[in-house]
Amino acid sequence: MTRVPRPRIVRAGALGASVKDTQVLTKFTDLGLDKMLLKALSDEGYETPTPIQAQAIPGVMAGKDLLGIAQTGTGKTAAFALPILHRLAADRKPAPRRGCRVLVLSPTRELATQIAESFKAYGKHMNLSVAVIFGGVKYGGQMRAMAPGVDVLVATPGRLIDHLQEKTITLQGVEIFVLDEADRMLDMGFIVPIRQVVKHLPRLRQNLFFSATMPSEIEKLAGELLRPNPTKVSVTPQATTVERIKQQVIFIEATRKRALLCELFAEKDFKRVIVFTRTKRGADRVAKSLESAGVEAAAIHGDKSQGQRERALAAFKAGEVRALVATDIAARGIDIDGVTHVIQYELPNVPEAYVHRIGRTARAGADGSAVAFC
Ligand code: AMP
Hints:
The chain is α/β, with parallel strands linked by helices. The protein contains 16 helices and 13 strands. The longest helix is centred in the first third of the chain and has 15 residues, at 76-90. The structure holds adenosine monophosphate (AMP). Residues 15, 46, 48-50, 53, 72-78 line the site of adenosine monophosphate (AMP).
C-alpha cells in the first residue's frame, strides 16, 4: 500500500504541528468550511488546522473516502467531524426515524463520549442532533434518544449490534461511516462485530477509516471498507508523549559502548527496552553481545523473515526477552505498551528519526526513559 509521506517534523510542537508547518498551513477560514463551523471554531479559539486536519478536510468535504493513520492528540476528531458537519450543513434534511445520517464507531465508551462532545461543540450553531450508544447502561434512554432519528450517532460496536438485532436502531439511512481507532478495535476483538455492523449499512456511502498503526489485518479491513483511491493521510505522534519521556545523553568512546549497554541492563527497571542501531549487522552484533552478557535479546531488521520478526516481537511483548534490538525501518509502526527504555546505541542521521525512536516509549499514558549514546 502506498502512503502519503509523513509531514516533516521540525520541532515537536503541540498536536504534531511544528513551527514550520504552521507557517505553510492555511487557516480554517481558507478551507471553505461552512460559516456556522467557522464561528464554532473561533469560539473554541482554534485558528490553524493541525497537519491531519489540513490534509484530510478538503478531500472529505469533497465526498472522498479517507484513510487516516493517526493517533489521539493529533486533532483527528476535528479532521473528520468538521468536513462531515460541513456536508450535513450543505444538505439539511431530517434524519431517518430510529436511524442516523452519520455513524461513528469507536472502541471505547470514553472515546465515543469525547467524539460526541466534539461534534456537539463544532456543530453548536447548526441545530445538530447527536446520540451516543455504548454498553453497560440501560437500553431505554438510548431507544428514546434514537426514536426520532439523529444526525450523528457515535457508538461502540457491541451495544450497537444489540440495537440492530432488536430493530431499535436502523442504519439504512447512513450517508457517512467513520471507523475510529481501528487497530484498537482489533486488539479488543471487535473485528467481527464491525463486519456485522457494516452489513447493515447501505452500499453507497462515504467511508472514513482511522488507525494509529496498520497491521495486516487492519489493512485488509480498510481495503474492504474503502472505495478505490481514498485520500491518504499519515501523521506522527504528538509532542505530549515526548514530554513524558526522560531524555539523557551519555558521551562515550565507541569501543566502550557494548560494555556500557550491558551495565545499563543491571538496573532492574530496564524491563522492556528497545535498542536502536543504524545498521542491520549492528543490530545482530548488539543482540549477540547482550545475550552473551546474560540479557535475553532479539534483533529485528529487514533481513529477518516476517516469521522471525513476529516471533521476536511476540517474545518481547510477552516479556520473554528484555531487549529488542532494531533498525529504524524495522521498528516503524511497532506499537508496544510498557516499553520502559529506548536506547540509541548510535544516533540517527536525521532529527526526525530521533523523535520517532523515543516515541516508542511512554505510550498509553506511561512514563519512559530515552538514553542516547554519543
Ligand atoms: P484529538 O486528536 O482529536 O483527540 O484532539 C486533541 C486535542 O486537540 C483536543 O482537545 C482538541 O480539542 C484539540 N484540537 C483539535 N484541533 C485543534 C486545532 N486546530 N487547534 C487547537 N486545538 C485543537
